[in-house]
Here is the input.
Amino acid sequence: MTKTNVNQGAKLFNQEVVREIEAQKERWKKETVKGKTGDGEYFSDSGIPVNLLYTPDDIKELNYMKDIGLSGEAPYVRGVYPNMYRGRLFTVRQIAGYGTPEDTNDRFKFLLKNGATGTSVVLDLPTIRGYDSDDPEAEGHVGAAGVAIDSLEDIEALYDGIPIDEISSNIVTHLPSTTVVIMAMFAAMAEKKGIPFEKLSGTNQNDFLMETAIGSSLEVLPPKASFRLQCDAIEFASKNLPRWNPVSYNGYNLREAGTDAVAEVACALANAIATSEELIRRGNKIDDFAKRLSFFWNLYNDFFEEIAKCRASRVVYQEIMKERFKAEEMKSQLMRFHVQTAGITLTKVEPLNNIARSAIQGLAAVLGGAQSLHVDSYDEAYSAPTEESALISIRTQQIIQTETNVVNTVDPLAGSYFVEYLTKEMAQRIRDYISEIESRGGLVACVDSGWLHREIADFAYQTQKDIENGTRKIVGLNYFPSEEHAGQKVEVFRYPETAEAKQKEKLKRLRQKRDAKKVEEKLNVIREMCHKDVNLMPYIKDAVLEYATLGEIEEVFREEFGLWQFPLA
Amino acid sequence: MNEASSYFEKKSDVILGKLLKEVENQTANSIEILRESSARKGTAHIVGITGPPGSGKSTLVNKLCKTLAKSGIEIGIVAVDPTSPFTKGALLGDRTRMQELSGLSNVFIKSLATRGNLGGLAPTTADIVQVLDAYGKELIIIETVGVGQIEFDVLEIADTVVLVNVPGLGDSLQTLKAGIMEIADIYVVNQADRPGADESVRDLKMMVREKLQENWEQPVLKTIATNNEGMIELIDQIQRHKEFLLHSNRWDEKRKTRNLTRLNHLMIQSLNNEVDSYIRRKQGIQIKIQQVKEGKLDPYTLSDHIVEQLIKKHGGM
Amino acid sequence: MQIKVVMAKLGLDIHWRGALVVSRMLRDEGMEVVYLGNQFPEQIVEAAIQEGADVIGLSTLGGNHLTLGPKVVKLAREKGVDALVIMGGVIPEDDIPLLKEAGIAEVFGPETKVESIATFIREHVGKTIG
Here is the structure.
């Protein structure tokens, strides 16, 4: 029997049994619980009402093969791969990135020597926001929260001696404007080394929401321009870098900024919809690029809701890709996602409690079928993780992987009346939120008008009020408040402060030795192409090959696309 | 030379900031500052920018002033946001949309909260504008609250009123029709890259034709402030309106009317204060007020009585 | 007297949640809050001058508190602005004495009740600091 032969009408439970349960449940409410169910008073984090008891009648509409199915098959509720963690354990990612590219290169080599299977790098704020290290706006930030990248020279130094044709390279680029430049530099480096593009594998983040809604900055590109760059990177990768994941739709940071779990997933999916529409408009086929789209979720403490969210997000994505965009290939319909535990749930009081929180969230990620996981360190409310706290994060993941046995069977919570009910409910709420976004003209319009910013701000404001008035309880903070002084001493990680001077010196030399005329020429081509309906990536690659800097290219974007005023307050 | 006068001689942003703070808070010192600034009123062109929420007023002001500032003229911007009627607090966010203007030495921005005023401006807006004018600003832009209600206050203060609209705000156009629609001097359809822009322009032009001002046909412009499109045209029209005002004597008339309005406002304010302090002091009147409250005495009789007593006290009539 | 606060994200710091939530809640406490978005010290002090701010609020999670925070106080005092300068965000405990020495009146961590920030402001506004 093939999957297409599924009996579409077959329900999970025999309807006679359901009727019997419904009748018994009414009796039970009256006689056993004596009416005191408390239903209507309990809610999940995103406001779904939670009943005292779940039974088959709560999920009586479900058709097992159609709505849940088997692992590795549509609708992928149970997981995107047939044998899930038996086939491949979730990837333990450890991010590096500080100081100069040379500093981070040393760290890469250290990690690889000690068993890491790929590199993962974060960039400093000036790089993310498109400023060179010698820009006055970069002052105080160079090499601080990530590595500084100014030109192709820096990318070459960062990956010096790293086998980029053998291991995967994760680059946390955040913004599309950063992504197009860094991706172009990465490709240019491979070109110079004679490595064919097919051998490059890796991921970058590339989400226009990050550029225009989630993070604020001094100079912001208009949403339309940022979205165009996001699509340029995805299109370029789908045509040239077949093993590259050119986008990780960032529900994570959206949630940190202020949304519930429903909006987190819905906005990321709305972005995937907008991307697909745009790439199809440009003449691509859905199956050309959909298999390279990936997602990034944030898991809070509401254990079952977060697991249900992971499961529900896969169903809704499959529906969208299959039904709306007529994707044919299986790989175009399955949602792969990375999880990071929720930084915002960590407390500064009694920081060791955060180890428990992160472990619970990490466990939810694995029960939700995540492809890779980053467990936050307990000291995040103080600073970037120290070596000790980072090790505890890795150990937490290893404990989940090996000691708990939860990875031994696929999607172990399936069939729980409550989890299946929540999954169904989350999926519906995600669909509704996507409809809301589309009724307002789609995600780009929702950002442009400031609607999404208001949604985020309202949520963050309400959350803070709920914490201050005690509606939302946080252990050690407003529930059994800690006796200890809130700001107890924790050893903090200090970045090297020499990066700024070193990068400035390198830039000075670079500007002297490169062919200034050629750089200007290539920048002018980008300038011209900004106003044409073309993919900017090839032109950016040409410019970085002449050692045009990241700041120079992004200045062209700012001049040509104009600056957009962040619609806040 | 008194103290306030010397402040006006110095021309520094730090001092201007301090003067405006006194005026904004209506402190005891503010009377002296206003008296001094009244004598020093300059020749600033005062432009009011109004329009419904979401029409992109702040962004328009941002781009407009960015272009204008290049010529080196001294610009003052007064941006008004609403005060919460419940908490008396306010979140003034217009500056976030004017970030491109920060660092320009010839642009001075003051954010004001409405502090209970209902006409779209803060109670001290006219005073603030007067001080900016006296301080040598050549162009003063007032951005009204724009919460949807008809904002007439700006008409009293501004020489030129620009009404900003966006395509597809049909309903708000209806409400505006009744009021300010008839009195604006320049109409702008912002975000003109949205569908429906041409229809909005056509509707506005029709409306303008019905309400033509004497010797001034109100222009209807299309702008896309976010892309800096249409700013030069808007600046031209603002300038053209200024010249029209100057040549037709309206410039002076407006100032004369404004002086009288100001006198009226001040008289009413003084009278209110006088009445307040008088009735608070008189126990007998307090008792009668209580009787009015309980419906035992009619308010007309008591009101006449209080005014009579007050005038007698000042030896009038 | 109505208290006027100028609130800014310091430099390139990207996280606006805290700054905006605190701004809204100070509004609820009856203050007038001018939200600047991201700005560097020169522009923050310029805005404080123009707005006649009683308080300058700086928010940062990006690790630039030591490089840019004291600069705000220094520039403000040079220009004769006596506004209370306070800071919030993720700031290591060891750095707080350094910030206070530089004239930052108080540093509020991630779990501060906004109510207590408002109380601090009311108690300290008008008293020239540093």
Q: What stands out?
A: DSSP finds twelve helices and eight strands in chain B. The first strand of chain B starts at residue 45 and ends at 50. Chain B has a mean pLDDT of 87. The interface with chain A takes residues 54, 58-59, 62, 91-93, 96-100, 226-228 of chain B (CB under 8 Å).
